[in-house]
Design a protein that fits this description.
two-stranded antiparallel ribbon, 3-stranded mixed beta sheet, single chain, alpha+beta
């Protein structure tokens, strides 16, 4: 990384405390379900059967974060969101690849992937 960066952490967007100073509790309560949906949608895997339109809301959020400018400089370098592949993991989407320099690479072969299921309803 060539310099310190700030990213928007969307991993726990549905866990925002309603007691944050200056947060409108009514607005928070009205939008709580939307925050849960954003949290779930950000880490979805795109399948061949999915329409590109399914990803418009998450693309909108990403583009909004990307467009936040202060003093002519982008406020955020990327977004962090939960991983669908590992429950404790996360993904980092960066807006400007020039902020980083590749210093090493490694190639791995995947031997197994273990998915577990549970009944939701």
């Amino acid at each position: 990384m060539k310099k310190d960066i700030i990213v928007v952490d969307l991993k726990r967007i549905n866990q925002i405390s309603p007691f944050i100073e200056g947060l409108d509790c009514l607005e928070y309560a009205i939008n709580k379900e939307h925050l849960k949906k954003i949290n779930n949608e950000m880490g979805k895997i795109m399948r061949r059967s999915d329409s590109a339109l399914d990803y418009v809301p998450t693309q909108y959020i990403t583009d909004f974060v990307k467009s936040i400018i202060h003093d002519g400089v982008a406020e955020y370098a990327g977004i962090e969101y939960k991983s669908v592949m590992h429950s404790a993991g996360y993904n980092l989407a960066l807006f400007d690849p020039d902020l980083f320099e590749c210093i090493d690479t490694e190639v791995y072969g995947i031997d197994t992937i273990d998915y577990r299921k549970h009944l939701i309803m």
